Amino acid sequence: MRILHMTTEFPPVVFGGLGTAVGGLVNASARSGLSVGVLLAGGVLSIDGGGYGSPRASYFAENEPIVSPEGVTFFQISPFDPVEAAVRVATQWRADLLHLHTAWVWPFAEAILERTGIPLVYTVHSVDRAEYEIGQELGHILEHCEEQGIAIGRAERLVALTQNETDLLRHYYPSSVDRIRIVGNGIDDSDKAKQATNRVKDSDSPLVLYTGRLVERKGIRDLLAAIPYVLERAPKARFVLAGGPPPLSGEEVARQWLPPECEPYRSQIHFTGWLNAAELEEWYCAADIQVVPSRYEPFGMVVLEGMLYGLPIIASALGGPLRILEDGRTGLLYPPKDVSALGEAILRLVIDKDLRRRIGVQAGEEVRRNWLWSRLVQKMRKVYIEALARPHIPFAAPLIEHPISP
């Protein structure tokens, strides 16, 4: 079974949870014995691991592929290349199945399907229309909405990350119902994460960490609105917001997001700007609490990451966090967009060292029991087998089955 993954992100080219999730699945699949290839459209990988923008990075479909130490075969095309470049990769590598991870590269995937007829599995990492309507994301998120609808209609199997995402797919695309399978993302353990989990964190000036993209649906404004409430009552607490577009410094990100109400507390609110994996790991080790204030969260790789490092997590009670966390045991959940409830939850953990410790330990145990990739990849293998066994059905579903709300 030869699986060709199509994505715009793969470590070290990572701008959010997508790249982390795809990288984890691909490497776990290789470890499990599957033959795995990755077709990266955009971004830049390099032979020396230099990552985005490396001068040695360009390797394209017509050149020799790169094989990683894990046995993964990598190909790269430019987003502006003709679709034949992707078809050439799929045919020359002799892929048995195509695994799509984003509709941004749908034209390439569509060409492969039309020229080769190999089955398609599509992991819908987020529903564009839900990001717009529920997450209150800006209208640009709908740029590939139509293509996402076509991809959903063409897939032999759709992978939803949670039951909540399954419900959204059923709502927006009713014809997809019978083809949806739920397989969450996973995470790989590390010695550093184990050490962080076992370390007693009893700081009198606890560090509250946000990690991830800084976009509307992540609830950044709700978190920033809650910070003054917390610091008025716990003046030693500190807040770190890790993330942001790669070209911008932490100060530039702060100027974009920091509201006037937070200015009196500026010395206790730190924006890091974009971080690589090693830099982000240091913040996970240093933190005492993690906050995931999303308005729409299909899964939340950052939830698994925080749990792995033994952090007690405060998260909106929706989507992935609601599926992953148990309120009061492995995290604290609060109603989405409720700034007062968010502030109270943060304050509760800031003040109570014992509660922080208890929840963090239980979160670390939970993620290692149920969310490691070695467990999740077996579920994905079953999806692949189903897709390969199912006769190909031509696309017939309408592109949009419900109008988009104004």
Instruction: Report on the biggest sheet.
Output: 8 strands, mixed
| Oligomer category | single chain
Gyration radius over CA: 21 Å
The mean pLDDT is 89
Query: Could you say how many structural domains there are in total?
Result: 2
Q: Can you put this structure into words, describing what you see?
A:
It is a single chain. By secondary structure, this protein is α/β, with parallel strands linked by helices. It folds into two domains: 201 residues, Rossmann fold; 180 residues, Glycogen Phosphorylase B (Rossmann fold), CATH 3.40.50. It is 40% helix and 15% strand. Helix 6 links the parallel strand 7 and strand 8. The termini are far apart. The C terminus is likely disordered.
Which structural traits does this protein have?
406 residues, alpha/beta, Rossmann fold, 2 domains, 8-stranded mixed sheet, 6-stranded parallel sheet, 15% strand, disordered C terminus
